[in-house]
Each structure stands twice: as structure tokens, then as C-alpha cells.
Amino acid sequence: MRLNQETNKQGRYLWRPISRIAPTPSGYLHAGNAINFIITYLFTRSQNGFLHLRIDDYDLVRYKDEYVLNIFDVLEFLRLDYDAGARNLAEFRSKFSSAFRSEIYKQAVKNLKDTYFCSCSKHTPNAYKNGIYTGICRDKNLPFISGQTALKIKCELNLGDFVLFRKDGFVAYNFASVVDDELLGVNFIVRGADLFECSQAQKFLANKLNYKFQNCEILHHELLKKDGIKLSKSQKAPPINLKESPQIYYKMVAKMLGLNPKSSQNLNTLLEEFKEQKSQLLAKFC
Fold first, then answer.
1. Cα dihedral 100, 55, 41, 262 in deg (nearest 10)
2. What's the sign of the alpha-carbon dihedral 108, 111, 114, 117?
3. How far is CA 24 from CA 56, 63, 97, 130, in A?
């Protein structure tokens, strides 16, 4: 793992992580989001890295300004600082929304081969086998028809072919995310274990685009679950209570990572404990 290998003669790290906290404004943030933000912060700050805030407003159907405001409120609540990105709703809407990068996505997709338009849905007969698209539209040479066809890319991995631009004409998450990460120079990401396939898809795209992101270090942490089901916005996970103490979430991280419980008194003590145990902590991630 690069996090432990690249040092100079003085034992200092030559590799500097460039990471991002990248929430989606599609609902109020929950404990699982807080855990991910804190772990990303700890890894990045423990190595004097650079941390972006990137708000991924790709899903316009579920987007609400109040969810963007909640992101800023939660980061302030958790005491997590970052080096670049919007500082408030007005700045996000005027400078940082993915809408400003729509032409970049359109130009990037021109550099991809093996793409095609697809009219299938989850309910199309024989379109999916064990959840993986069978590619029945690959050779149909369908045109783009708004609301009817999506742009997909052929993928021989166990992911199956996946969407680059949705039927509504808007960019899909995996494609937008890898383009945005390349633009920011991201070389290190911490994600939940449920996003392992997303990581595979994005590395696949980065390789096809000859992006530096194909060398990005990606760690996946265990998920917070309730009654065996992961916490998520779609499952109506309870939002973070901003009237509570952030120490609740520092304790969750300390417990998940096996750190000294006393280190969760505040973010600074948690960071110091993390720095001391960093090399051992890597075994807890996949």
C-alpha cells in the first residue's frame, strides 16, 4: 500500500494524499455519512494531505437546497475543515455545481470507445441475469432518444455494461465522479464497502480514458447497520442530530477502527491516536 511505502531518507512521506468528502444532496446526512467523512479526514490530515469538499449534485430528481445546507451544517458540527470547495449554498450554486462541468462530461465521453445507446430497463425481458446487464442492445445501433435511450459502455468485467449518460440526458454517477476526481487530482478515497463495484467501474473508466485516477488508492470501510440493513438515505436512516455532541461520532469511529476509546474526547485527540496507529489500521480496510 502506497500509504506506507514512499518515504525519503528522513522517513517522511513523499506521497501526499489528495482526497475529497463527496456527499450527495439527495437527503439529510446520517451516521454512516459522518463515519465516512471522519475517516477520510483522519487519513488525509494524518499525512498532511489536501482535502476537497465536492458536493455531487448529479441526481437532480432528489436534489434540494436544504440538503446542501445540511452538508455544511454537518461538517461544521463534526469540526471537519477542508482546503477547497464551496463554503455556503450561494457559492456552491454559483461556482461548484456539477452543472458547470456538463460540457466537460460531454467532451470526456467522446474519448471512450465501445459505447452504445440502450433502451432497456430493469423490467426488459432477458436484459439482466443475476443483476448484470446482458448487452442485448450492444449491436442495435440505436439513436439517442430523450427519455428512451441511455448511453452505456461495454464492460467485460463482472460489472456488466453500465450507464454513462441516463435516459434523461444527464450524466450518471460513476462517469461524472471519475471525471470530477481527475479534475481535482484525487489520488486517495475512503468509501463504504457497498461502493466496491463503483470503485471497479471508475477504475475501468479511468483506464479507458488514460486518467491518472486509475492509480488512485481506494480504501473501503465496513458499513454501519441497523437490524442487518445498512444505513442509507433510501432506507430512511435517521438524520444526524445537530443538537447532540459530535463526540458520539468520534466514538463510533474509534470503536470501528479499534482505537483507544479515550481518544474520542475530541477530533484532535482522535487524530493523534490515528497517526500513531495508522500503519496497523490499514488491515481493517479492503
1. 160
2. positive
3. 5, 8, 11, 28
* Separation CA 32–CA 26 (nearest Å): 15
Q: Which three cell numbers stand for residue 88?
A: 455556503
DSSP three-state, residue 272: helix
Band the pLDDT of 45: cuts 50, 70, 90.
Answer: very high
The pLDDT of 222-249, averaged and rounded, is 81
Which strands, in side-by-side order, build the sheet including 162-165? 115-118, 150-153, 162-165
What distance separates the 2 farthest-apart alpha carbons in the chain?
Answer: 62
Give SS3 for 278.
helix
Range(s) within the chain of domains with CATH label 3.40.50.620? 18-99+178-285
Class (C level, CATH) for 18-99+178-285: alpha beta
Helical (H) or strand (E) element with 133: strand 132-133
- According to DSSP, the residues that pair with 13 across neighbouring strands are 7
CB 204 within 8 A of CB 36: no
- Alpha carbons 32 and 230: distance in angstroms, whole number: 8
Q: Are 247 and 38 in contact (CB under 8 A)?
A: no
The residues, any chain, with a CB within 8 Å of residue 5's CB and separated by 6 or more, are none
Q: Please tell me whether the overall predicted TM-score, pTM, comes out greater than 0.85 for this model.
A: yes
**Which residue stretches of 131-266 are H helix?**
173-184, 196-209, 247-257
